[in-house]
Q: What sequence folds into this?
């Protein structure tokens, strides 16, 4: 149902290949995603969804959790497509801002290179028309991954997703760094796929099942019977699979690729790579952990303890290594790793409250991470009119695709565009877990869940690391607000007058000149403002999100309790 | 169960188990040589030898179709392209010589750890085929004793069955090949997997085109 | 005992194959000569019939020379691989009803796999000789083989689809009513072109273009290892002609004789004539005649067409032949299922 619509639009997208219309494809993609959200939302109201429905002979299943996360993925990728769907800058003329005039007059620019330069018509992200297509493939993969209930379909959909991601990274092929990052990503991703496949193969060789349902049944029975053979090899198989998964989400012992890759690829792509894969794989892990967690039944080794180890390592590595970073995307990568530590902690505890906190954390983190990356992109766009006097900044590799690479580039940004700076600092505070913001509540829920189950040491580590990580978040804020900036605006742009004709019924009635005031386009600014407001004002209306996560976790636990 | 499985193999295909062990040894050797060889082309050649070996193993065990398609796909298509590209690149062997002796202890430890975990997980009927157990069996002949204990007069029976079934009448009467089996399953129960894998191939194709196409 | 029998069986196939290789070379030289108004070999034996054996003897008695920088193992392994895998293809060929070495149920598939491995021989021989000419020749040859193998296997796919079996004998027997040439005539042409290219014959013999590459991948090979290449090349020509006649002309079945039977309505089974007819209708002679005609066409093509350029060769493969074949791969199943035809031997699978 949901898949078929994607497929149809996908193929129609694939058929016509014209270079200059890439922006339209992004818009089509947005429409597709709206439609998908509608479908997924509609399906939420099916009666029997609570217990999960198997689709396609049990190869896939759907439940309210999967539907919610489908919607989340669609939403996030919709916002990401927004970045390529519209030109990032616009011209402002106070004369023609009134609604009446906006609707009834038509502007036509005299053909001019500067205009297209200013609104960045020729940016590379608008010449790659397969971008949207690849994005849709990846989304298909991750949607399938979330709702797969068979080991083979897990593998197939994870491959679909990650092949798309490798290609997406390599798509900006004029930039050397992005290609090399994509190669790194591909090689390590291939390795992790090998681990997943080995684990799946061993499970099949031992148990003869690939259906997750029957696997869960066998696993739980094994826990009760305490047959030595079964209880030893199931955790090891799952350990192998989870090693693969942890590779893909770049959790701590397997995190080496993520800073390099994030740093190498264009920021727009980074946004996508950083968020989507994590949502889908973590949701899948949620299932696996929930149904195979026998930590309370047997005293022997359980594979989830290794998840705890990974969580501990992620917390420490993400914060400590993040301290020394001066490239902003690497820093974000490390912060992602430390946040993954929190999520894995909440995941592994596996009580009602911790699952609730996990779901909430995942949702809030992907939203605020998205906001952070969009802000980076927007800052890059807004700096167009300024000349950087710092020579170091001028010869960065791959400056076209990701303009902001160093933290020092943000120096004194508050004095250039205070609103964007404020939004970024709010997001960063939310990452750090400063009380009134959304991140604080998420962290607090994780800690309370962990304390309730007696994970005191991990909680302590979590608190400490979040304090340490606050250092580097605050460092960015400091550079933005308290350092003087080295930017000067271009003289040429200052005096520039851009001629434009005002048409009414195809007649030229007026000729106006835009001066060089231009701003971020409304799509970007609206996205940023909404996301920032969500983060900021979450404390006034926390009910919706909390209720969603609460209900979902309760639903997950009901079949067990009855 | 395990013994019956082996016996079945032994009788129907007419191959001796020792051949399987032999193939195991050769493929392990090829695998090691693939890693050790300095010259990338020689290393790829060992890899191809490994593929052929494994295909032979599959055919010996009875998976004709899968074995042949293994040769056709991996040997005939994938690795020949690999070899082709490697030859075209013209890597100088002297550049590749680097000191890797320091990593050997690390590699040994990693492999041991890995096999410590995997060894517990590998299903038992596979491990019985390995050369180690086979060697130990040949020394102590525990194996035959076991067989004797479990099924009476197994050796006579074995000869008899082998003689009777060497013409494999059963096979020619009720022949249910792997192609039909795979086809029946793939297009009915697991058709969705087929679709997904075709989508993956589509992604690969689109991606290859996107990356390599000449942009104007 | 059974081992000895199987060795004898193998020899029974391999020795005639190799002898026929010798005669094919003779016939090639004679035919080319008469097409070019020359006499051709006529000194050794009657009409020069023993010329090939004399040549082989000369080559075998020569001293072999290997380049000093060559990778000696691969240098010798290459020709051996080529010859072995060219001869392995003869394993699954049925020469007459009940006359075959192996009635493998995946016979066609086996041939494909074997010919896939045979490519390595050329690649290795060319690379290991450490000579630019040999290397370029082997690269060209490999690229050509890979590309044209694609065409051959997609045509095979359609044949398999119509006959419903991968077994070579079943494919032959299912052409009793009508040979596959009629429904698949365009594909036969494509397949024939593909097989000329697959065997590196003129006009597609870019791999050993004398004017450019001395002698291609076998430049450095001399004496007995050169014989290996020589034998392998002609053995694969005969093999692929046999394959052509099996796939499209009904192999050992004689279509003409069958039509005579149906015309005369020979339902009585006692006459000697009928026995004779039934022997002729499916005898190895049919296969031999068909194959010889096809080999003659191979030689004819060599004598008639000039060599084409390498880029033309590749673009003919990828831009002309492959689209046609793929179009057929799509069209034919549609026709078959549209007309509700079941493949003949689907139950025999």
A:
């Amino acid at each position: 149902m949901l898949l078929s619509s994607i497929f149809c639009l996908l193929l129609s997208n694939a058929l016509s290949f014209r270079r200059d219309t890439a922006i339209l494809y992004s818009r089509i993609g947005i429409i597709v995603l709206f439609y998908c959200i509608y479908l997924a939302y509609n399906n939420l109201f099916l009666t029997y969804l609570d217990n999960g429905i198997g689709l396609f002979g049990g190869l896939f299943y759907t439940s309210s959790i999967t539907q919610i996360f489908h919607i989340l993925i669609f939403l996030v990728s919709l916002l990401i497509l927004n970045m390529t769907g519209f030109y990032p800058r616009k011209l402002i003329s106070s004369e023609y801002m009134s609604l009446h005039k906006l609707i009834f007059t038509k502007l036509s620019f005299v053909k001019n290179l500067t205009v297209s330069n200013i609104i960045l018509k020729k940016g590379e992200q608008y010449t790659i028309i397969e971008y949207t297509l690849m994005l849709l493939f990846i989304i298909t993969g991750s949607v399938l991954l979330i709702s797969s209930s068979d080991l083979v379909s897990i593998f197939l959909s994870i491959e679909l997703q990650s092949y798309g991601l490798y290609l997406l990274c390599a798509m900006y092929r004029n930039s050397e760094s992005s290609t090399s990052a994509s190669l790194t990503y591909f090689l390590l991703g291939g390795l992790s796929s090998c681990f997943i496949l080995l684990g799946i193969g061993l499970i099949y060789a031992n148990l003869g099942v690939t259906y997750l349902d029957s696997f869960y049944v066998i696993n739980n029975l094994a826990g009760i019977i305490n047959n030595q053979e079964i209880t030893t090899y199931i955790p090891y198989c799952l350990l192998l699979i989870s090693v693969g998964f942890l590779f893909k989400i770049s959790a701590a012992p397997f995190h080496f690729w993520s800073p390099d890759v994030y740093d190498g690829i264009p920021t727009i792509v980074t946004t996508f790579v950083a968020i989507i894969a994590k949502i889908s794989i973590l949701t899948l892990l949620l299932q696996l952990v929930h149904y195979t967690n026998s930590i309370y039944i047997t005293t022997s080794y359980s594979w989830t303890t290794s998840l705890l180890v990974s969580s501990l390592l992620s917390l420490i590595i993400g914060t400590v290594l993040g301290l020394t970073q001066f490239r902003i995307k690497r820093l974000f990568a490390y912060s992602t790793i430390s946040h993954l530590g929190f999520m894995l902690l909440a995941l592994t505890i596996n009580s009602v409250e911790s699952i609730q906190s996990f779901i909430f954390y995942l949702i809030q983190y992907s939203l605020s991470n998205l906001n952070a990356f969009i802000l980076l992109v927007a800052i890059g766009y807004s700096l167009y009119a300024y000349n950087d006097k710092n020579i170091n900044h001028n010869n960065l590799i791959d400056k076209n695709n990701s303009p902001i690479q160093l933290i020092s580039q943000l120096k004194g940004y508050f004095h250039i565009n205070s609103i964007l700076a404020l939004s970024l600092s709010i997001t960063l505070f939310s990452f750090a877990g400063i009380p009134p913001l959304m991140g604080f509540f998420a962290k607090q829920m994780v800690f309370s869940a962990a304390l309730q189950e007696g994970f005191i040491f991990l909680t302590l580590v979590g608190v400490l690391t979040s304090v340490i990580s606050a250092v580097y978040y605050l460092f960015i804020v400091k550079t933005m607000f308290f350092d003087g900036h080295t930017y000067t605006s271009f003289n040429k742009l200052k005096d520039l007058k851009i001629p434009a004709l005002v048409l009414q019924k195809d007649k030229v009635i007026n000729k106006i000149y835009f001066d060089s005031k231009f701003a971020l386009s409304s799509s970007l600014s609206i996205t940023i403002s909404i996301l920032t407001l969500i983060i900021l004002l979450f404390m006034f209306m926390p009910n919706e999100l909390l209720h969603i996560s609460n209900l979902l976790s309760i639903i997950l636990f009901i079949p067990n309790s009855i | 169960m395990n013994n019956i499985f082996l016996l079945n193999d032994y009788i129907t295909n007419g191959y001796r188990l020792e051949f399987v062990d032999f193939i195991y040894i050769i493929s392990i050797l090829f695998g090691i040589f693939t890693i050790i060889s300095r010259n990338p082309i020689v290393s790829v050649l060992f890899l191809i030898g490994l593929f052929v070996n494994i295909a032979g193993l599959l055919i010996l065990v009875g998976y004709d179709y899968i074995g042949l398609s293994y040769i056709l796909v991996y040997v005939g298509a994938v690795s020949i392209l690999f070899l082709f590209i490697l030859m075209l690149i013209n890597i100088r062997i002297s550049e590749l010589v680097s000191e890797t002796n320091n990593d050997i202890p690390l590699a040994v430890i990693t492999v041991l750890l890995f096999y410590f975990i995997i060894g517990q997980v590998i299903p038992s009927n596979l491990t019985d085929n390995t050369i180690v157990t086979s060697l130990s069996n040949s020394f102590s002949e525990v194996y035959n004793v076991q067989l004797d204990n479990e099924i009476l007069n197994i050796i006579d029976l074995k000869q008899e069955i082998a003689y009777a079934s060497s013409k494999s009448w059963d096979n020619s009467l009720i022949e249910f090949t792997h192609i039909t089996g795979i086809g029946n399953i793939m297009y009915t129960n697991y058709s969705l997997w087929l679709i997904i894998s075709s989508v993956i191939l589509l992604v690969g194709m689109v991606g290859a085109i996107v990356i390599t196409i000449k942009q104007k | 005992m059974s081992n000895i029998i199987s060795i004898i069986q193998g020899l029974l196939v391999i020795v005639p194959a190799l002898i026929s290789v010798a005669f094919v070379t003779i016939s090639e030289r004679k035919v080319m000569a008469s097409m070019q108004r020359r006499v051709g070999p006529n000194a050794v034996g009657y009409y020069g019939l023993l010329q090939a054996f004399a040549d082989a003897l000369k080559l075998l008695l020569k001293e072999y020379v290997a380049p000093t920088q060559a990778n000696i193992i691969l240098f010798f392994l290459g020709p051996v691989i080529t010859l072995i895998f060219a001869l392995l293809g003869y394993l699954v060929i049925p020469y007459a009803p009940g006359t075959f070495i192996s009635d493998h149920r995946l016979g066609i598939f086996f041939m494909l796999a074997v010919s896939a491995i045979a490519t390595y021989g050329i690649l290795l021989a060319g690379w290991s000789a450490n000579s630019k000419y040999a290397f370029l020749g082997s690269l060209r040859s490999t690229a050509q083989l890979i590309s044209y193998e694609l065409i051959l296997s997609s045509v095979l796919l359609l044949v398999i689809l119509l006959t419903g079996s991968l077994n070579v004998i079943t494919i032959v027997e299912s052409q009793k009513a009508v040979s596959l040439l009629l429904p698949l005539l365009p594909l036969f042409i494509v397949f024939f072109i593909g097989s000329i290219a697959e065997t590196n014959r003129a006009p597609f013999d870019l791999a050993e273009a004398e004017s450019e590459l001395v002698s291609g991948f076998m430049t450095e090979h001399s004496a007995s290892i050169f014989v290996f290449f020589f034998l392998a090349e002609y053995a694969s020509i005969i093999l692929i002609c046999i394959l052509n006649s099996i796939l499209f002309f009904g192999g050992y079945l004689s279509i003409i004789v069958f039509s005579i039977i149906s015309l005369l309505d020979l339902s009585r089974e006692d006459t000697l004539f009928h026995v004779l007819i039934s022997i002729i209708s499916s005898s190895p002679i049919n296969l031999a005649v068909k194959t010889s005609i096809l080999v003659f066409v191979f030689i004819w093509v060599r004598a008639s067409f000039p060599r084409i350029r390498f880029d033309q060769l590749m673009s003919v493969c990828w831009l002309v032949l492959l689209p046609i074949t793929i179009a057929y791969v799509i069209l034919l199943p549609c026709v078959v299922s549209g007309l509700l035809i079941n493949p003949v031997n689907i139950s025999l699978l």
Q: What stands out?
A: Confidence is low (pLDDT under 50) at residues 11-20, 94-107 of chain A. The beta strands of chain A are 53-55, 60-62, 89-91, 106-109, 386-388, 487-489, 498-504, 507-514, 518-520.
